[in-house]
Specification:
The protein is of the alpha+beta class and about 475 residues long. It contains 14 helices and 11 strands. The termini are far apart. The structure holds NADPH dihydro-nicotinamide-adenine-dinucleotide phosphate.
Amino acid sequence: MTSTSGRPVGDNQNSLTAGARGPVLMEDYLLFEKMAAFNRERIPERVVHAKGSGAHGTFTVTQDITKYTSAKLFSKVGNTCDLITRFSTVAGEKGSADTARDPRGFSVKFYTEEGNWDMTGNNTPVFFVRDPLKFGDFIHSQKRLPGTNLRSPVVMWDFWSLSPESLHQVTILFSDRGTPDGFRHMNGYSSHTFSLVNANHERVYVKWHFKTMQGIKNLMTAKADELAGADPDYAARDLTTAIDHNEFPKWSVNIQVMTEAEAATYKVNPFDLTKVWNHSDHPLHEVGVMELNRNTKNYFNEIEQAAYSPVNIVPGMGFSPDKMLQARLVSYPDAHRYRLGTNYEFLPVNRPKCPVNTYNRDGFMRFDDNGGDAPNYEPNSMGGATEDKRYLETPSTVAGDSGRYNHREGNDDYKQPGDLFRLLTPDHQKRLVTNIANHMRGIPEHIIKLQLSHFTKADPAYGRGVAELLGMAVAEEELVGAR
Ligand code: NDP
C-alpha cells in the first residue's frame, strides 16, 4: 500500500498522535490525505438521469446501408465496433428506485474508427416538450418543490395540462411501458430525427430504433411499487446478473428513412420530438445488432464518468432541424464540462479509440501528454495535423425570417396519442386510465378538468375512463371545449 504520491504506508490502522490518547499530529499525511480524498469522492450528480447503470458490448452491422451513409462503421456487413451503454431513470436522484414510473434513458457510445458516435436516446420514441425553451420548466415540474422539497403530482399535472404537446409521452408514461421490467426488456429510440449522408453527399433523414430481442416486458404498477422498496437497484441487478451468467442481452438496431422531399410534405413535422413517423409510412429497416457482453469493473470510472452527447456523430451522419436536438447538441457537452471538467473527453471511458489530433490544450485535469511539444496552433509549418476537405459537412438549406414562432400553431397534439390509446388492448387501456387516475387523485379540480379535455380530444373513451375513476361526471362537450 502507498499514499497517492507513492510513499509506502507503514500503518493504515492507527493515526499519528502525541501519546496513546492523542491529540492527532498535523503531520499525519496519511490521515489527512484519506479524509481529503473522501470529502471529494462525489462529483455533481446529473441533474437528470442521475440513477443509471450499464455495460460494455459490441455492435455488428447486419445489412448494407452504404446507399444511405458513408460512415466507415457501415462500409461492410459484418463490421463490428466496441460500445458502452448507460440506462437510467430520469427524475429521481442517484439513489432512487430503478422501478419508478419514468422514461428510461438509453445511451450508447459506439467507439468507431472515425470517432465516437453517441446515441443519447430514451425508451420512448417521443418527448414531453418540443421547444427547448420549455425543457428546464418541464424538468422543474418533475423535481422537488422549492418549498417543501417534496415531489408533487399537482405541479406535474399543472405543467402537463398547460402543455398539450406532452400528451403523447404522458400516455406512454402511464401505460405499462412506463415501468419496464429492467433494462433488458425495453426498446431504445433516438427519438430525434438525425440524418445519414452517403458518399455522393445525398442526405436522408432517419430515426433510430433499438428493438429488444428479449421481448418487451413490463412491471405491473403494484409490483414496481413493491420493488421500489424491496430492491431499488432491481434493473441494475437484473442487467449485471444476466451478463455474469453469459445471458447477453441483444437489441436489433433499425432505422426509419425519410427523403428530404418526403420530409418537406410529410403529414406531421418530421422534426417535432412529440411525434412519431408511422411505421406504415416509414417501415423499420434492420441495420445491425447490439449485444451487451461485459460488466464494468469500476462503476465510477466506466458509468458515472461516461459522458454521452448527441453532438457526437461520425462522417456520413448529420443532424436535423429538430429544435430540441439543436439545443441538446450544445447543452449536453456543457453539462459534462460542468460535471466532469473541461477535459472530460480524455477520460478513458470517453476517449475515442481512434487517434485524436486536436489543438485544444491545457485546462483543469489535463492528464494525457497534453499534445507534448507539438505545435498548439494551426496553420503551422511544423507538420501538425491539418484539415481534410473530404470531411466537410454536407450543406443543408436553411431559410426563414428569424422570430419566436408559436410551436403550438398548426400542430395536432391529439391524433397520435389517440392512435396509441386505440392500439392498446382493453385491459391495457384500463390499466392506463387507472394509473393516471390514481396519480391525479386529490389535485385541484381546474387542473383535472383541463387535463381531461386533452384525454377526451385524443379519444373520448380515454377521457371518460379517467373521469369515471375520478368520480367526475363531466359532459364530453364541456371537456372538449375546456380550452
Ligand atoms: P404501428 O401499429 O405500426 O406500431 C405501434 C407501435 O406501438 C409499435 O412500435 C409498438 O411497439 C408500440 N407500442 C405498443 N404499445 C405501446 C405502449 N404502451 N407504449 C408505447 N409504444 C407502444 O403504429 P404506428 O407506427 O402507426 O404508430 C401508432 C402509434 O404507435 C403512434 O401514435 C405511437 O404512439 C405508437 N408508437 C409508434 C412508434 C413509431 O415509431 N411509429 C414507436 C412506438 C410507439 P412494439 O412493436 O415494440 O411492440
